[in-house]
Amino acid sequence: MKHKEQFWLFLTALLIVFCGLFSAQSVKAAYSNKQLRSYAQKTMKKNHLRGSIVIVKNGHRQTVNMGYGYYKRHLKNGSSKLVYPVGSLQKMVTAAMITQLIYKGKLSQNTKIYRWYPLLKNSSKITVGQLMTHTSGINVSGTESSHGIRFSENGAINWTVARANLSGNTGLNSFNYNNANYVLLAGIICKVTGKSYAANLKSRIVKPLHLRHTYIYSSIPRSKTDAISYLYCHGKNYRSAAYANANVVSQLPGAGNMFSTAGDYYKIQQGMYNGKILSANQFSYMSHLNSKVNTYSGGFYLKNAGKLKLAYGNFGSTHFVNWMQLTKDNKNGIVMFLNQPYGSKNHIKSVGYGILKRIKSGTFIKR
């Protein structure tokens, strides 16, 4: 009996020690996340940045909001009423939908785009993969300038083809970043599925991930509004207000007409790896297309021996800046949606890198 009592006393003591250690680790983790949040807030304030940032550390996600997304309406960044232009970060979403169609056997990365664009110059030589890696040679200027026309999806795609036929070619298999490549990919999605790009986005991305703040610009509900962008100048915030021009947005299906939040965009990144949009193998396929000539493939840059994914975006004639740097498994990193930047592109990335170093030292790169 005495030995039995000693056993239970020992077991109880062991449980107390275990629970104490578990509790201490939980407090330490919570404290670490709180410190990280505080640092991000101070960093944004010090550098006159306004917007929303999703910070992910060891799989734990938190959102840091700073300032107003619509100053005159007193709508703070992070408000459920606000959505932001995703800019070039949309290209990754378009590439994911193309990858879905490839895995359905509807086309391949080597399919010549003449099938859908017989009137496009050099279309008999250009492949789907070359559009996805910006190695098609297509070079359309003015894609982010207003031409005074509010295009339909089909109208924007036809306009892009017409402009491409009037433009010079930068050379097949040479990298030349151009929005036209992804507008044409949006057109392929429409032609293959028989549905609009907007309908495909809703069925392939929004619904599977249960996104509540992601829309094509023309479908933003009346209960929400797109954010306004600003500059910090002469010692004051919220100067030089600029919003996304509806005509410009309409020119960019698949390349700049999606509006979302940093939180929703992070969920999209998760979906591209956990099987809800793409499996890990499909993501690897998209990021290693045969036609790539640098680290860009499928709408983003894969760096540090394939361990990191990066994308940077802005929106023409506005001050919006979006930047993402995440580990491939989405367990650590940052998604930055700014409506008030300050300084150069590299300076903004450096500010983000300062936060990244505190998320996981030695993991991320400056730009």
CATH overall fold name: Beta-lactamase
Number of domains: 1
Q: How is the main sheet built?
A: 6 strands, antiparallel
Helical content (DSSP H or I, runs of 4+)? 25-40%
Based on the structure given, which CATH architecture is correct?
Answer: 3-Layer(aba) Sandwich
Characterise this structure.
- It is built from ten helices and 14 strands.
- The chain has 367 residues and is an alpha+beta fold.
- It has one domain: Beta-lactamase (3-Layer(aba) Sandwich), CATH 3.40.710.
- Helix 2 packs across helix 9 (280-287).
- The longest helix is centred in the N-terminal third of the chain and has 45 residues, at 2-46.
- Mean pLDDT is 93; it is low at 21-28.
- Keywords: Signal.
Question: How are the elements arranged and paired?
Answer:
Layout: H1 2-46, E1 50-57, E2 60-66, E3 68-70, E4 75-76, E5 82-85, H2 90-103, H3 128-132, H4 153-166, H5 179-193, H6 197-209, E6 215-216, E7 225-226, E8 229-233, E9 236-242, H7 246-250, E10 258-260, H8 262-271, H9 280-287, E11 301-303, E12 308-314, E13 321-327, E14 333-340, H10 345-359
Parallel strand pairs: 5-7
Antiparallel strand pairs: 1-2, 1-14, 3-4, 5-10, 6-10, 8-9, 11-12, 12-13, 13-14
Helix pairs in contact: 1-10, 2-5, 2-9, 4-5
